[in-house]
Amino acid sequence: MPVSSPPTPAPLSPPAGGPPALRFDTVSKTYRSGQVKALDQVSFDIQPGEFFGLLGPNGAGKTSLISILAGLSRASGGSVSVLGHDVVDDYAEARKRLGIVPQELVFDPFFSVRETLRIQSGYFGVRNNDDWIDELLLNLGLADKAHFNMRQLSGGMKRRVLVAQALVHRPPVIVLDEPTAGVDVELRQTLWQFIARLNREGHTVLLTTHYLEEAEALCHRIAMLKQGRIVALDRTSELLAGRASTMLQFKTDAALPVSLRDQSRITGRIVQIKAHDATEVEHILATLREAACPVEDLEIGRADLEDVFLEIMQGAHA
Ligand SMILES: Nc1ncnc2c1ncn2[C@@H]1O[C@H](COP(=O)(O)OP(=O)(O)OP(=O)(O)O)[C@@H](O)[C@H]1O
Ligand SMILES: [Mg+2]
């Protein structure tokens, strides 16, 4: 689903010389006495102010990494720190710098929305927080739901409360584990506008999502995880530019010239050919013309992050 009017990623602010916002240092995680290797020596830093995307197919290890960051699970090896504070040795300092929106909906059904947010503020020792709570409710479209009991909310509204809960103590580092899974277009728009504003104001954001157009629109840099290993990590623009950036698609009943056949994806009458630049597009069209290969419904489109993701996950560049 397209993200209409996505916020433009702000330029990456240079690191201020302090510690990284998040540091993952050779993090490994095994489950079931070593039978499942969910994370295998994962290392990367996220700088303060970055909007960073962590992408990967189901089971790649994204939630495992976030659970270790949140202190909900222990790494089998390596370490994780938040603004220089180790999440195990210095848990309280690390945790208070983090706002985490979990993938699973967990909430206490007996409290109202406002009570839930007040309790969470108290947990972080923040008093007289109602002004900020009101701003959160307003920005997340929950202003008229403040007195609703949590169990009276729909699934999407509960997710909004989880986002508010994560932000209640104004954490400098915001972590969102698939915050838009199964939620409506309106919440996505509201959520991204708000999160992009917080990022412009200096908050660091780590996002996992399966909606690759969201990641493409929002993230400065992207890491791709496959079976617990990082298989790509670069600025979003570099990831897009470094691969085939143009996709030619047409229909034909004729056999393709041999020189094109190897580089084409053929599905019935539909032929797709990747090209890196305009010269390559011209070359492909000239080859088709010289071979007198009849072409219908020719389209030339830009390859997007989804094409890049599939290319990387299929192992072409892993
Ligand atoms: N508590 C657990 N016990 C055993 N195995 C687990 C546990 N939690 C996760 N795993 C396994 O670890 C691997 C990584 O799972 P994880 O939840 O981190 O993936 P993910 O990238 O978040 O996937 P998704 O996109 O589906 O949310 C999977 O093989 C999963 O089955
Ligand atoms: Mg997950």
UniProtKB/TrEMBL annotation:
Which SMART domains does UniProt cross-reference here? AAA (SM00382)
The name this protein carries in UniProt is ABC transporter ATP-binding protein
Swiss-Prot/TrEMBL keywords:
ATP-binding, Cell membrane, Membrane, Nodulation, Nucleotide-binding, Transport
Q: What is a single molecular function from GO for this protein? A: ATP binding
Q: Which Gene3D superfamilies match?
A: P-loop containing nucleotide triphosphate hydrolases
Q: Which residues form a coiled coil?
A: none
Q: Which Pfam families match?
A: ABC_tran
PANTHER family to which the protein is assigned, alphabetical: ABC TRANSPORTER ATP-BINDING PROTEIN, ABC TRANSPORTER ATP-BINDING PROTEIN NATA
Q: Does the keyword Protein biosynthesis apply?
A: no
* InterPro entries found in the cross-reference section: AAA+_ATPase, ABC_transporter-like_ATP-bd, ABC_transporter-like_CS, ABC_transporter_ATP-binding, P-loop_NTPase
What family does the Swiss-Prot or TrEMBL record give for this protein? Belongs to the ABC transporter superfamily.
- PROSITE patterns in the record, alphabetically? ABC_TRANSPORTER_1, ABC_TRANSPORTER_2
